[in-house]
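Recap from last week: sequence in, structure out.
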Amino acid sequence: MRLSDENMAKDFKDRKNSAALAELAPEVVGTVPPQAIELEEAVLGALMLESDKITEVQEYLTEESFYKEEHRLIYRVMNELSMAQQPIDLFTVTNQLKSKRELKKVGGANYLAQLTQRVGTAANIEFHSRIITQKHIQRELIRASSEIQRQSYDSTIDVNDLIGFAEGEVLKITEGYVKRSVQSASDILRATIRQIEKAAENDSRYSGVCTGFTELDNVTLGWQPSDLIIIAARPAMGKTAFTLTMARNMAVDYDAGVAFFSLEMSSVQLMTRLVVAETGISGQTIRSGKLSPSEWKTLETNTKVLGMAPLYIDDTPALSIFEFRSKVRRLKANNDIKIVVIDYLQLMTASGQGDKGNREQEVAFISRTLKGIAKELNIPIVALSQLNRATESRGGSRRPQLSDLRESGAIEQDADLVAFIHRPEYYGFTAGPGEEPVEGLAEFILAKHRNGSVADVKLRFIKEQAKFTNWDQINTGAPQPSMDQFEEVASAPFEPSGSALQSATSNEFDISRVSTPANSNEAPF
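Predicted structure tokens:
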């Protein structure tokens, strides 16, 4: 009797605790993952009634989209039959499961027969498939958020790595399930005609973002929306100097919003370079602050345009591709940027990617993601890249080529345009193959151009100011031509320079360098 009383008391206590738990947290007690079991059954049954609907379903559903394991096995078999171009019906699915010894796992032939009775027609199969996909996305978001929450409680994980992981998990879900629908040729043609009409209304002959370098813009018609542009060179060729000059031209001369991500130099160092190039005052004088009254006046007058330019600089070191994506999205939404510049690609990380593999796979992931961001935001992305040492060991002209791109062949594959900067003067060459002088010459070699021609473009490098100008701009200390002058020159027919000069390698420009030997061809800052 006493034992019975104890059991009754324990049972009453358990019921009381359960009632209290249900009252305090009703959303926890009875919560199940998002699912649509009945629709899963309806879709599988409809496929066995009308097997030709499998092509519509495959656009939305994968094996993992189904909540029940039995349904995953059945759908996998249906996909196998579809790949083998076999009919999908109750008989073939049953036999296939039986041959794989999985018929009992799904509930036997009786369960398959019941599925065919769940629905009378496959008319709504596409709509049902979309709902199943939505439930799967919800489950994936719950899984990702749970893992993010678990790692958030781990004090040993760096917060930047945690943010990168969180962004990476959400990005994987987004890329896996947010798809663009197939468009008909007529729809695409109408969009293309509208784009051509818009270009015809443009007073400029260029359809993209102009660089301010006449001959280069004649070849490319400006950097085009959604393009990934890779500009590569060995150290000391002037990659940063070129992109800074280009960013200045775009922001100041064309009022185009430019986002400049510098992973190597600080924002103050970059602005110092721009100030030197804009004023013509030596870098050593600028850094020392020992300016004459006239130089102070020049500094105040000439730098006003930089302060008003829509130029945005981010100098976050070791920037992850996910953090970069978030920042660019915000800049596009808030500041309507027209182009993005990255200095340089190999300094980016793929933090949060998960099992990244080796560095080559990581760089391949970064370049592929950059191309995806360019397409998503419909803006060009210019990324600087290093070259390997193959140019040094090759001998002869030592001109760079596509195989010299460092760390990953995927960069060449993903890029719409690949260009190299080549300065023969740096290595002591005084004349080219045709005995033409090469003093100040910088070749911009277009090695890959997916939507246009390849060419060698001549530019002039002003080593005292570490900036680039048009080759035919004889007075190298003069400012860039005005927009009217630029358009006048640009309207002339394009004639590629076709130069083929020699090149080699050395060290990057160092803004902290205070002096340069008289016979050196490096920038003096």
